[in-house]
Amino acid sequence: MDLPRHWPLPEAVDLLDELLAAYDEPTRRYHDSRHLSEVLDRIEELREEGERFDPLTVTLAAFFHDSVYDGERDAEERSASWAEEALSAYLEADTVAEVARLVRLTETHDPAPDDHGGRVLSDADLAILAAPPERYAEYVATVREEYQHLSDEEFRIGRAQVLERLLEKESLFSTPFAAISWEAAARANVTAELETLTTYLSPDQ
Hints:
By secondary structure, this protein is mostly helical. The chain has helices at 13-23, 33-48, 55-64, 75-87, 93-105, 116-126, 133-146, 152-168, 176-181, 183-200. The chain is globular, with a radius of gyration of 17 Å.
């Protein structure tokens, strides 16, 4: 993983070091440096496939989108707040605001049709859903490890709800390339995982 290659602020190396240290925290199992690297690679892939967006704000939002991750509901908000505080010394206020907006968007992955940066970041973050079966299984296992505080039954119920909401979407992905290239594999992976989870859930759940 060559994460510094993607970093767009050469004058803020100390900030990059802080972010990478956060992603390398030992409590992280999925939302770690590998995930960040995969998101950045998918952003680059979407750019190469013709998506038009502001690379500075989207790339910075990718670096910050899971900069705070502890399983609590407001992690995206705290990640966005870190971006607002840390980037104000290097960028104009409107640019910082856009980075923070994009970070907050990763809580819902529901960008507007004309939100080009949001569509790219959301698709890159969700691209793991379309991973080959072996990588997808690893992703599922590491997500479970991040929720060790939940019982198996609690995790299955919560995870099943997340997957059901994903499958209710008309499309998991917003950009044309992702919709064509990733949608079918992602739906197959999510459907198979959901079937496994519901097999273990008791009939009254």
